[in-house]
Amino acid sequence: MSWKRLSEALRTIRFRITAWHAAIFLGSALLLFGLIYYLLGHAIDGKDRDVIEARLREYVAVYESGGVPALRDWILRVHEARKQTAFFVRLAKPDRSVLLMVVPEDWVADDVAKLDDGGQFRLDRWMRAPRDADMDLTVASTSLPDGTLLQVGRSSDSRQRLLERFRRAFAVVMLPALVLGIAGGALLTGRITRPLRRIVAAVRAIIDTGKMDVRVAAPKADDELADLIVLFNRMLEGNEALVRALRESLDNVAHDLRTPLARLRAMLEDALRREADPAATHEVLADALEESDRVQTIIRTLMDVAHAEAGLMRLERQSADLGALVDDVLGLYEDVAHDKGVALRKEMPVLPAIEVDPARIRQVFANLLDNAVKYTEPGGTVTISGRQETNALAITFRDTGIGIREADLPRIWERLFRGDKSRSEHGLGLGLSLVKAIVEVHGGRVAASSEVGKGSEFTVHLPSAPPPARAA
C-alpha cells in the first residue's frame, strides 16, 4: 500500500472510529484488570487474615483465662488432634523475653528470623514476609492487658506468585481479545459507515459525470443512517428536478428573449437602411423601444420574483380598499375582454380597508385577470368575487376557460413554467410566480383549483392585519 493510500485510510471516519473503539476496549480491559487485581490481592490477604485473626482471638481468650500453662496445653491438644503444627505462636514478656513459642513443622529457623528486625520483635499489627517462591509468612501481633506480646502466624500461598499467575493469564487472554476487539470494531464500523461511503461514491459519481440520476441503495436496516439515505435520495431527486426546471426555464427565457431581440435587431437594421425617411425611421425606433421594454419587463419581473422570495421586496403599505383596486384592474382589461368576447363580472360586498402595498396588490390582480381573460374562450365569463374571512380578506378570480391539467397544477407557481396548452399563448411564465411571491411577502397565501375544459379558480388570501416586520 502506497503512503498516499495509507494516509487517506488513516484520515477516514472508519479508521478513527475503529481506533477509538480499540482504545476504549483496551482502556476498559486495563481498568477491569486493575480492579480484579486489587480485589484478588485483597481477597488473598483477607482470607489469611480472617483465619489468623480467629485463631488469635481464641489464644487470647485461653491465655487470659489460664495464663501460659493453659495456652500451652490448649495448643498441644489442638495440634495433637490435627496431627500437625499448623500455626506459629509466640508469647513474649514486655522485655521481649519469650515465654512460649510454637513453630510449625514445615518452618525453618530462618523463617522466624524473617519476622524479627535485628533480634527485636516487630510490633506491626500485620506482617507478611516471603518465605520462598511459593509461600509467604503472615503473622498478626497484639499486646495483651498485662503487657505481654502475642504473635500468631502461618505460612500461606505466595501472594505475589498468585498475582503473577493472574497477570500472565491476563496477558495471554488480553492479546487475542484485543485483536478480536479491533477486528470486531473494524467490521462493525465498516457496516455502520457503509451508507456514508455509498453517499460519498454517489457524490463523486455526480461530480465526475455531471449526471443527477445517481441514487444510493437504501440499507435493509431501519435506523438513522437509512433515514439519511432516504433524505439524501430525496434531495437528489429535488436537485434533479430543480436542474431540469432550470434548464427548461433557461430555454423559455432564451425563447422569450430571442424573439424581441431579433425583432429589435431587424428594426434597427431597417432604420439604418431608411436614413432618408425620418418618419419611417421614427416609427421603427418606436417599435424598437417597445420591444426593448418587453425585454426589460422580463428581466424586471425575474428580479421582482427573486427579491420577493428572498424577503427583500420593499412594500409601501397604506390603507387600501381591495374593491377599488379590483375596479382599477377591470378598467384596464375591459377593452381587451370585450374584443375577445369575454364577459367580466364583479360580485363583491363592501370589504374593510387593509394595510397593503396598493401598487403590488394591483399587480397581483392584473396578472390573475390577465391569465383568466387569456385562457378563456370567446363567450366565456370571468368573475371576480370577494369575502371576509377570520383575520383575512379573500379575492377570487373564477373563469370558464380551458383549465389546467391536474399534473401541471402544483407547478404553476414555478418560475417560467407554462403548461402544454398555454405555450402557444403569449406570455413569460412569470405571472403566477410573481403573484405568489408578492402575496406571501404581504403575509398571505394564494390557492388554485382547476378542471380541464371547465375553468380555473384562483383565490388570494390577505391578512386583515399586517404581519410583524422582519428583523433587519
Word description of this protein:
The protein has helices at residues 3-10, 13-82, 109-114, 159-209, 224-273, 278-309, 322-340, 358-374, 431-441; strands at 88-92, 98-102, 116-117, 120-121, 126-130, 135-143, 149-157, 318-320, 343-347, 354-356, 381-389, 392-399, 445-451, 455-463. The relative contact order is 0.06. A hairpin with a 5-residue loop joins strand 6 (135-143) and strand 7. The longest helix has 70 residues, at 13-82. The chain is α+β, with helices and mostly antiparallel strands. The strands form 4 sheets. Strands 2-1-7-6-5 form a 5-stranded antiparallel beta sheet. It is rod-shaped and about 150 Å long. The chain is 56% helix and 17% strand. The chain contains 9 helices and 14 strands.
The amount of helix comes to 55-70%
Mean pLDDT: 78
Beta strand %:
15-25%
Q: Structural class of the helix and strand makeup?
A: alpha+beta
Low-pLDDT residue intervals, each spanning 5 or more residues: none
The number of E-state strands comes to: 14
Listing every helix as H and every strand as E from the N terminus to the C terminus, the arrangement reads: HHEEHEEEEEHHHEHEEHEEHEE
Using only CA atoms, what is the Rg? 50 Å
Largest sheet: 5 strands, antiparallel
Count, helices: 9
